[in-house]
Structure formats: structure tokens, C-alpha cells
């Protein structure tokens, strides 16, 4: 694309001034270290670093043009805009010739369930004909592609990824997890989704959004005609009900209530999965999901409706869903030699913790033991709420998660502040020892839930990341306790 064409993409959203020659733009970067000859550098003001300080570095690396909020002192073609962070997505989309227009693109948002819904959609694509890529927190065998954190890549990286899918020619559809951070930071600017889906809303990320209302509005902003063509909303969640009333998009509501466009009725639920019916347009569609947890029925129902929106019929999608592989770190199960059911799950919000405990209690005859820690440098307000939620288990083991730059013991103290006096709990800051204590305490018929890290394979401290995979550690400790390999 030429600089004039790229500038036009921004002009529809904010004022833009073009100064200099109309050069060709091959790529767009917001990191000056990634700039190569022919690309545009976008200078973004961050909380710690101002990208304008690196314009000279970008030029030295061969930048053909820059996008700035202030006039550069060096002579180079540039675009001057009011908000470079917001402009980045539109600039990158234009530079890569709007790759999303050549794909079926589904956006999934909500506090919990985004990753699972995305992977369910990927499974529904099947082995031939429809290859559905996942862009989100984790990859998997169903996903044609995967990326690393953040949940939603930066706008330039995302558009480059989409262009790669189009150019390779194998990918037909993309399921993108859209975080509230991504909405606030413009990471999906430049994409008009074929359909967007909402799962649920509960407290998280208030270190960033400050209030639940701001958190809700960040997610609700995805459900506008400028962002998407249609919506799928789970209305059993109060925020989903509100969103249904707020959005002007063509909306399909999903839920267990009689007024849902697509009504969900669970027929059975076991540790091996659930069977359920979708009542839709006066037809009953039978479906099953081989993932434990009734909450995965809501995820599956949302995914099935999204699949229909992109042209995969319900019966075909349901057949493929029935054979999908587990999603890494999402209610993954390990059965020990002595009959203990171990669950590895990413649950790290009060609502998710309570839901996983409640679901597990319905599945086992014995006790529910839960291992939980809160992450450092993240929403501190939810820590006592996490403590309150985990004590719905018969025994809570409070430990460390990813302390990052914080003192692990201080984080644990803030979690303990929410634990009722009469609750049964123990504290062990060493996560491996905490897992071992939980497994040692468990008896046949009990469930041990190891929550918070899910798919992660490292534990983050202030100055280092150490290898740590909850599933691997659980198997190692079970082998030590029981003397048998898993």
C-alpha cells in the first residue's frame, strides 16, 4: 500500500496529516527494533516508554515512513495523528491489504470461556475443507495456529498474522479471543468480525479498568456495527442480558431460559463430558462435548451457534465437537491409581473458582480440595474474593501463583483476608509443596483442583521465570506418593 492509501484508512476514524512523499509501505511496527526497510514505524506513548524517543532508531533501520503524534525533528515522510495507539490497527490493516476481509473471522470475549470456545470452533472446522485458526491464549491440536501472550496480539502482529493465513491459503476461518485490554488498546482496530460472541462477565482486570462498569463497557464496545456484523450472546449471565438490550447488532441469544433464541437443555453430565440439546427454530439438535464440566455446555452452545454463522451446519459441527481433544489447562483431568480425581484449570477469578468447585462437587462422592494462589502485579481487589470463593471447597490450600514483582507472602495475606474464620484451609507458599499436600490429604473418591495457571509452563518471579507446569508437577507428586507412573 502507498502512504496515501494507508493514511486514508485512519482518516475515517481520526484526523490525519500527511507530510512528505507518497512512499510504499510493506509492513507496520510499533517496536523500533522490528523495523526493516520499507516498513512504517508507529510511535506510541506507553506508561513507561514514549515511542517518539525511538523515531531516529526506526529511520536508521530503514523505515519508509513514521506515524506520530508530534512532528518529528528528522526529515522523513510521516503521518501525524491524534492517537497513534488507536491508529496502529487501521494502519496495519491497510498496509497488509485488509486480510480479515478474505477470512471468516469470529471474535470471542468474556471473562471466562474465551479460549475454550475458540478451540471448540477450531474442532468444528474438521480435517478437510475448513481450517480454523485460533488466535488466543493457548494453542492445541485443533488449532491450525497459536500465539503467545498477550491474549490478543498487538495490532501490527495480529494483522501480519492474518495476512500470513491468507497468503498461505490453507486457513479459511479465524477464531480470535478479544480481551478487554485489546479493546481499550485498539488491537482489533481494522477488523470487522463476521460474528462476535459474549460468554460471561465477572470481576477481573480491575487494576487496568478500575471499575466493573468500565470493564463491561470495554467488552460491550465490540458489539457495534463498526466492529461486527452479528452477535451471539449467552444471556444466562446478567451482563449478557444487558448487552443483548444494548447492542444494535443482529443478535442470536443462547441460554437455558425459554426466551433464548437457542435454548440449551442438559441431558447428562459426567467427568467424561456432557450431552445436551439445542432447541433452535423449533428443531432439537442433539450434541455432546467430551470435556468435563457443565460450564462447557454453555461454551459448546456458543461455539455451535458461531459455527452456524460462518456456514458450518449444526449437525456437522456437533459431530466434530463430540470428538474434540481437551483444551490445554482448561478443566484437564488426571485419574490417580488410588481413585483421586485431579483437575488442572486456569480458573483465576472468584467466579471461575467457585464454578469449578461447584462443578467438581457434583461429579465426585468425596471431598473437594482446591489449590489456589493469586497472581502478582494484577487486580488486587479480587484477591480476598478469591479467598472467599476457594473456601467453598472442603479444604483450601492457599499458595503462590505468579508473584512477578510482588512479595508472595503479601499476596497470600491479601487472599487470606477474604477467608471466613470457620473455613478449613492451609497455607503453603511453595506451589509444588502445596500441590503435594493437597494430593497427600486426598482419599479415593476425592477431587483435587489445582487452579490458576492452567496451560502455563513457567512460574514468574521478579527476576526470573522457573519451569513449572501444574499437570507435570501433579503427575510427579502422585508418582512419588503412590509409586506408580501416570
Structural overview:
The protein is of the alpha/beta class and 486 residues long. α12 (350-363) packs parallel to α13, α13 (383-390) crosses α14 (408-416) and α15 (431-441) crosses α16. It folds into 3 domains: 3-95, 3-Layer(aba) Sandwich (Udp-n-acetylmuramoylalanyl-d-glutamate--2,6- Diaminopimelate Ligase, Chain: A, domain 1); 99-321, Mur-like, catalytic domain (UDP-N-acetylmuramoyl-L-alanine:D-glutamate ligase, 3-Layer(aba) Sandwich); 332-482, Mur ligase, C-terminal domain (Protein-Tyrosine Phosphatase, Chain A, Alpha-Beta Complex), CATH 3.90.190.20. The strands form 4 sheets. It has a 9-stranded mixed beta sheet, with helices on both faces. The chain starts with a helix and ends with a helix. It contains 16 helices and 22 strands. The chain is 33% helix and 22% strand. A hairpin with a 2-residue loop joins β12 and β13 (273-280). Residues 139-148 have low confidence and may be disordered.
Q: Calculate Rg over CA atoms.
A: 24 Å
Kindly provide the name of the CATH class of the largest domain.
Alpha Beta
pLDDT averaged residue by residue: 92
Helix content: 25-40%
Shape: globular
Low-confidence stretches: 139-148
Tally of contiguous helical segments: 16
Task: Considering the chains and any ligands shown, give keywords for the structure.
486 residues, alpha/beta, Udp-n-acetylmuramoylalanyl-d-glutamate--2,6- Diaminopimelate Ligase, Chain: A, domain 1, UDP-N-acetylmuramoyl-L-alanine:D-glutamate ligase, 3 domains, nine-stranded mixed sheet, globular
